[in-house]
Design brief:
Elements lengths: L1 H8 L2 H23 L1 E3 L3 E6 L5 E3 L5 E8 L2 H4 L7 E6 L11 E5 L1 E4 L5 E6 L2 E19 L7 E3 L3 E3 L2 E7 H4 L4 E5 L9 E10 L10 E3 L2 E6 L1 E3 L1 E13 L6 E9 L2 E7 H5 L4 E7 L7 E5 L8 E2 L5 E9 L1 E13 L6 E4 L3 E9 H5 L7 E5 L6 E6 L9 E6 L2 E7 L23
Parallel strand pairs: 2-5, 9-13, 18-21, 25-28
Antiparallel strand pairs: 1-4, 2-4, 3-9, 4-8, 5-7, 6-9, 9-12, 10-17, 11-16, 12-15, 13-14, 14-16, 18-20, 19-24, 20-23, 22-24, 25-27, 26-31, 27-30, 29-31
Amino acid sequence: MRAVAEFVVRNWPLKLAAILLAVALYAGVVVSQSARTWPGRVPIEPLNQPASVFILESLPDVTSIRYLAPVDAANRISSASFTASVDLGGIDPRTTDGFASLPVVVTATDPRVQVVDYVPQRIQVRVDPLVDTMVPVEVDRGTLPDGLIATDPGVEPATVTVTGPRSQVTQVVAAIARVRVQPAGLDIDQQVDLVPVDARGDEVAQVDLSPPSARVRIDISSQSTTRTLPVASSVQGQPADGYEVTGTSVDPAVVTVHGDAGTLAGLTVVPTKPVSIDGAKADVVRKVALVPPDGVTLDVTSPVTVTVAVAEREGTRTLTAGVVLDGVAPDLTYALATGSVLVTLGGPVTSLDAIDATAFTVSVDVSGLAPGSHVVPVTVDVPDGLTLVSVTPARVAIQVLAPPPTPSPTPTPQPPTPEPSLGP
């Protein structure tokens, strides 16, 4: 027995290593013989994707899944036996430069199946933040059939919201509603799907439009004719008190119109939208749109400029003015043939109304006139802003009188001197 024991413990480290090697080789053989590879593809699903993050490219599939499983479980392996995913919960597109490297996790739905290996173990995910912006809705009506004319398209709504990854949204310049005019000349009034396009007119993918469609209206007519008609301004309201409209003008003064011959036959002018001049005290200048009748189109769609000239209302006023003498001499007397004259003034009505008729006077200059008869011009001091129209009479007769001569004093009679008495 002792000899057996010595044999067992002799070189025991080498013997133990041999045993372990044998076990490892056996385990490897067992694993290599029982590990299987499933050749199918399993899509990678994103988990915990933030609402503000958009995945720009489709995620790849997991392939070459190696697994260990009992024979009965291995015989039932299918695409539903595995799930593959990446966790997007920690992604911030503002700090990832558009890319994120994420590990792929593959699990088996049957707990008896153990996943050993798969491809890929890690993937690059291209992401972008979600943004939105407003773009105009434009109508592409294509080429009109011969013999037809169409009004400018009406579209509602005029703008829509574009939502999607920033790199795509920034490319969108408009939402196009494409319609086609039929040779039969039928009017268009329909809901049309919108297409987001870039500056070259190419469709931009991976974005959404809200709303996704718009209502397009286009009037179609045939047997078109053309006429050049004057533009008629429409003025509403009244200027301020004391002011009046002295004229109106439109630029351009004429426009070219298109429409059916019957429609244009009775058309003499193209009106504008109303221009209000309520309370105006100066010229009113407005850009307004033209308002052609139904079925009539214009060769221009830009607004016209309407100018309404507003000025103070002019008038005349005749006043009875008293005559005041200037330059009278204190030792002379003056007698006027008339004590008042009629003065007619012209100018703005507001200035004429401001004159105090009871205090209005004219003057004649009598300085230096000698006694006798004279005819002297009437001088009118015209208020600022007014003009003198007439004075009736323009000259007045005046009599200058000298004071009467002073009479010589009458001598007082003296009593007679008594004669001396003679004595007896």
